[in-house]
User: What shape does this take?
Amino acid sequence: MADKHKFKKIYCPICGRSVAKWDGKSTIPIHVNCKKCKKRIIFEPETQKVSAKEIPKRPFSSGLRFY
Assistant: This one.
């Protein structure tokens, strides 16, 4: 059986690249990094808004980032 549910693609507001998919069900904000313009893309499912922020600096030498 083919799933008839359509996913919504999330695009970077700066460069227009497709960065993620939203299934239409979840209410948790989606946070992804755009690999082209090096920005943090945040999609709010409740308001359908897409915003871009700077990726935070890495404060630890281990490579971990805490968002």
Notes: The CA atoms of residues 26 and 45 lie 7 Å apart. The chain has a mean pLDDT of 87. The chain has no helices and five strands.
